[in-house]
Specification:
Layout lengths: L11 E3 L1 E4 L1 H4 L5 E6 L5 E5 L2 E5 L4 E4 L7 E6 L5 E5 L2 E7 L5 E5 L16 E5 L2 E5 L3 E5 L5 E5 L4 E7 L2 E6 L3 E6 L2 E6 L7 E8 L2 E6 L4 E5 L2 E5 L3 H5 L2 E8 L2 E6 L4 E5 L4 E5 L10 E6 L5 E5 L3 E4 L5 E4 L9 E7 L2 E6 L2 E6 L16 E2 L7 E7 L2 E6 L2 E6 L2 E6 L4 E6 L10 E5 L2 E8 L2 E7 L10 E5 L4 E6 L3 E7 L6 E7 L12 E5 L2 E6 L2 E6 L4 E4 L1 H7 L6 E4 L5 E5 L2 E5 L5 E3 L14 E5 L2 E5 L4 E4 L1 H6 L6 E9 L4 E4 L3 E3 L2 E3 L8 E3 L5 E8 L9 E7 L13 E4 L5 E10 L9 E7 L7 H101 L7 H15 L2 H13 L3 H8 L5 H11 L4 H8 L3 H15 L8 H7 L3
Parallel strand pairs: 62-67
Antiparallel strand pairs: 1-30, 2-29, 3-4, 4-5, 5-6, 7-8, 8-9, 9-10, 11-12, 12-13, 13-14, 15-16, 16-17, 17-18, 19-20, 20-21, 21-22, 23-24, 24-25, 25-26, 27-28, 28-29, 30-57, 31-32, 32-33, 33-34, 35-36, 36-37, 37-38, 39-40, 40-41, 41-42, 43-44, 44-45, 45-46, 47-48, 48-49, 49-50, 51-52, 52-53, ...
Helix pairs in contact: 5-6, 5-7, 9-11, 10-11
């Protein structure tokens, strides 16, 4: 007996990432999905094999350019693909680029024309490919076997270690003993679309139109499911875990059921799927659900700790506030207040509560705040304050828009009234026996929009932060009914700025969030100052909001990011929420560890923080591409490390590229297979041989290096997630060969050349030294010569001086000789005169008067004239002056008489003939005759030669 079960959907739905065919640049339809051990995803696409590594989509068409319908990866990494009239496998080449290898040639010639290959199964070492009219088996020996269909092979699958196949006419077969054996005819009326393990040797079978069955001991039992599922036509299914299954339909998206057939969750276009026609499904190694759709690919974070609650079906709605009240979840949106009942206790994950949101009557408009009151739920609304009761919002005050509510401390006259921050100041609401009554504006309140409030109950102070004015301090009276003093604090009072200040209460302390971190108020100085506690944690990080949960964790908003400061001092961020918060209207409602509600611009975000903390997914980092850049680029690595026809997890040291020197620039790309957290992954890298240290963490997943010199390099890269979990370091080594002029042979030639050059230089230097030596010697010779010349010059000068001295001496002596000669001449004249006068006087005297004395005197004068002792003295003096002139003359011409020598001496002295005649006491004629005779004795050959010149210039 069968019956149908219907159930509501869960209020929390996983985030869905849409990939359109325009994004991945391939065909719209995706018939099968699988993943290898490195985390790379593969899609059987209508245009070929489509791959995705978290960063890059790549398409690898079949040789005949037809669609790929089936995929299967074996333990060696071969990617078997079946298409239209083609089947084979993809395997990376030496540089890691996928290449297709056809197996069609293994078939008999008569079997090589066939239609689409719809399923591919690897059973042991055998590969099976299903077409509509036949099934091909390729065994380990590359032998082909063909199984013809009696009617039509409509399905084939591996379940555990068994292979099943369905024939449309015959029924269900199992492969045993190298053949397909019929095991049940009960399925010949249903088209099987999937077969999954169900436990205890049972198999869960989905059919296209007839629903879900359980096969056990070859007996079929129908599983009771929601009638809408069967009506939507189940095209594919997937086992999520031991207790849940996903059913993909052709017209209504994906249904999740448990083992009993109960619907857990439903995803469709209303849940942000691109369309409702699901062709394939796959759960990756991070528990993400991938959907291959009739048009596009969707990534569903089905197992995520972060879910989205959409109060308005299929319509983006900004959610500003939320509150659980009376077993219902209320969400304030820009379009009113919505609520749904909760069928789970609050200590469980409420996102899995099933229900349908409805809008609270009379709540249309913007809802800013919710506060549980004794007799209902206070709602801060754009039009004032409302009390929500029994599914309807009833106005209490409609004077001005209301932001939020805070409970005032107890007083003597009140058990604690409620104060509201409104568009125009503070408003008081009193509790009159369980009924909330509007008591009007607080007396002396400022006329400002007060959206952020914190109450100091000890000092009767209400703090309010204005994003554009500063911080207001409002001191109340003891009854907390009127304001007695208001003071505005700005940047002049210690705040870093008058803008963007917010006030909250955490850990029993009022704190002020600013653009430069968290500040506190110092009552002693009446100024604001940085909080020493939180400055150590946040520094000058701009903080917009802080909220404390029951575990003393502090949730905060900085920029567009949501984070939590845990009690142990560590900080965690939530990349799933980044950029989704409503700037200026951030909202965090930490109910408990399993239920953290965060307002966003598109629904309410639910975080199961307890589950989030416990998840420690391993991060797989992929080096996706290495390109050597030159005039013609070369792809060194394209996603796979291979060696000896094996796929490796790291580069083999035997497969290191050695590149010509002109490849000196490189481009590296890398990615992680953390598909749902791509926006918060950061990378650090280092090129050993070039970089001295690792780079700073950055979301950039590519790196370029240019103008590298020759040598061996190793590129290293690592990644980390928002929990600071780091991946294993991935390395790629390459070698840049030197230019021909940088090789060892070149260096040998350089060495020889340098040696020859040095020898040549040495030779030249020696020649240069020799030339310099010769030049030096010449210069020295020249210097010696100049020195000698100088000496000779000096000697000549000395000789000249000596000559001049001698000449002066000679002149002096000649002068003396001349004086002596003149003296002799004058004495001779005088004596002659005396003699003549004496003789004349004697002649005139009578003879008797002539005395003997006169005679004796005359005789004495004659004798004096005849004496030559004056001459001898003269000759000695003359030879002394004229270098023994007379002596040499006499030696040369012995025939010369004394008279001749006298004439020669007088001529030497350049005396005139007249002067000579007087000296010799002869006549002038006698002198001429004597000269004539002297010429003959001296043998002067020509009359042209002057006797004086001969005597002066001759050296005897």
């Amino acid at each position: 007996m069968c019956f149908n079960i219907q159930a509501q959907n869960t209020i929390g739905l996983p985030n869905v990432t849409n990939f359109s065919n325009e994004q991945y640049n391939a065909g719209a339809q995706n018939w099968m999905i699988t993943q290898d051990k490195f985390g790379i995803l593969y899609f059987a696409n209508t245009e070929g094999l489509l791959t995705y590594n978290g960063d890059e989509w790549s398409l690898f068409p079949l040789p005949n350019k037809t669609l790929v319908r089936s995929l299967k990866i074996d333990k060696d990494g071969k990617i078997y693909a079946g298409g239209q009239d083609e089947f084979g496998y993809y395997f990376p080449s030496k540089n890691g680029t996928l290449q297709y290898h056809s197996l069609k040639g293994l078939l008999p010639v008569t079997e090589r024309s066939f239609a689409d290959v719809w399923n591919t199964v690897i059973l042991g070492k055998d590969i099976f490919f299903r077409c509509s009219d036949r099934i091909f088996r390729i065994d380990s020996n590359k032998k082909a076997q063909v199984f013809k269909a009696a009617g039509e092979w409509t399905y084939m699958a591996q379940v555990g270690d068994r292979l099943f196949a369905q024939d449309k006419d015959s029924g269900l077969f199992i492969f045993k003993h190298n053949e397909l054996q019929l095991i049940s005819r009960a399925t010949n009326k249903e088209i099987i679309t999937s077969m999954l393990t169900y436990g205890n040797d049972a198999v869960l079978i989905t059919t296209l139109k007839e629903g879900v069955f359980i096969l056990k001991n070859y007996q079929l039992t129908k599983l009771l499911i929601d009638k809408n599922i069967a009506a939507a036509h189940i095209y594919t299914s997937l086992k999520i875990n031991d207790n849940s299954f996903a059913l993909g339909t052709t017209s209504d998206g994906v249904y999740f059921i448990d083992k009993m057939g109960n619907t857990i969750r439903h995803l469709s276009r209303d849940s942000r799927l691109q369309n409702n026609n699901v062709l394939s499904m796959f759960v990756d190694n991070q528990s993400n659900l991938w959907l291959g759709l009739d048009k596009g690919i969707d990534l569903v974070n089905n197992n995520s700790s972060v879910q989205k609650i959409s109060p308005v079906l299929n319509t983006p709605a900004a959610c500003y506030t939320a509150q659980i009240y009376d077993h219902r979840l209320y969400i304030g949106t820009s379009d009113g207040l919505y609520s749904t009942p909760l069928n789970l206790p609050s200590n469980e994950d409420l996102s899995y509560s099933k229900g349908i949101f409805t809008r609270v009557a009379n709540s249309g408009g913007q809802v800013w705040g919710l506060y549980p009151a004794p007799d209902g739920l206070l709602m801060g609304h754009n039009e004032g304050t409302y009390l929500v009761k029994k599914g309807r919002a009833n106005p209490i005050s409609k004077f001005e828009g209301t932001w939020l509510y805070q409970k005032l401390p107890k007083t003597a006259s009140s058990d604690g009234n409620i104060i509201a921050g409104t568009y125009t100041g503070l408003r008081l609401f009193e509790d009159h026996n369980g009924t909330i009554v509007d008591s009007g504006r607080v007396k002396n309140t400022i006329y400002e929009s007060l959206r952020f409030l914190a109450i100091d109950s000890i000092n009767n102070i209400v703090w309010s932060a204005h994003p554009y004015r500063g911080v207001y301090k409002m001191t109340f009276n003891k009854e907390m009914r009127q304001i007695v003093n208001t003071k505005l604090y700005t940047d002049k009072d210690g705040l870093p700025s008058s803008l963007n200040n917010y006030v909250y209460t955490i850990r029993n302390q009022i704190v002020f969030c600013t653009e430069s971190g968290i500040y506190i108020y110092n009552a002693l100085t009446d100024r604001f100052e940085p909080s020493k506690i939180y400055q150590k944690i946040f520094g000058k990080m701009p903080i917009r909001m802080v909220v404390e949960d029951k575990q003393n964790d502090i949730w905060f908003v900085t920029g567009k990011k949501l984070g939590v400061l845990m009690a142990n001092g560590s900080i965690k961020y939530f990349p799933e929420v980044t950029g989704k918060l409503i700037s200026g209207f951030e909202f965090i409602y930490p109910l408990n560890e399993q239920n953290i509600f965060v307002g966003s611009s598109d629904g309410l975000i639910h975080i199961n923080f307890l589950d989030y903390k416990q998840r420690k997914a391993s991060m797989q980092l992929l080096l996706s591409k290495v390109i050597a850049l030159s005039k013609k680029d070369s792809v060194l690595y394209n996603g796979y490390f291979t060696y000896n026809n094996q796929i490796l997890s790291e580069q083999s040291q035997r497969n290191i590229d050695e590149l010509p020197a002109h490849f000196n620039s490189f481009h590296f790309e890398f990615a992680t297979t953390m598909y749902k957290e791509q926006n918060d992954i950061q990378y650090s890298f280092q090129l050993e041989g070039f970089d001295k240290e690792w780079s700073k963490w950055s979301p950039k997943n590519e790196k370029d290096y240019t103008n590298l010199s020759y040598g061996k390099y190793t590129f290293r890269v690592k990644a980390r997630d928002n929990f600071n979990h780091e991946s294993k370091v991935v390395e790629f080594t390459f070698i840049i060969e030197p230019h021909w002029y940088q090789t060892n042979l070149a260096y040998l030639f350089y060495a020889i050349g340098i040696f020859v050059l040095l020898a040549f230089i040495r030779q030249k230097q020696a020649e240069k030294f020799e030339k310099q030596k010769l030049k030096y010697e010449k210069e020295q010779e020249q210097l010696r010569y100049l020195h000698q010349l100088e000496i000779e010059h000096n000697e000549r000068e000395i000789i000249q001086l000596q000559k001049e001295k001698l000449e002066n001496d000679i002149a002096y002596k000649n002068k003396e000789l001349a004086t002596t000669t003149m003296h002799l001449y004058k004495r001779g004249r005088l004596l002659s005169k005396i003699k003549e006068d004496l003789l004349d006087g004697i002649k005139k005297m009578p003879s008797k008067e002539i005395s003997s004395d006169f005679t004796k005197l005359v005789k004495m004068l004659n004798e004096e004239e005849k004496q030559d002792h004056d001459w001898d003295q003269f000759a000695i003096h003359f030879d002394d002056v004229h270098n023994n002139f007379l002596k040499d003359l006499k030696a040369s011409y012995p025939g010369l008489t004394q008279s001749d020598l006298k004439i020669c001496a007088y001529l030497k002295m350049n005396l005139s003939s007249k002067e000579i005649a007087q000296l010799l006491n002869i006549s002038l004629k006698g002198v001429e005759v004597a000269r004539y005779r002297l010429r003959k004795k001296l043998q002067i050959p020509s009359s042209d030669i002057n006797l004086y010149d001969f005597l002066v210039n001759s050296r005897f």
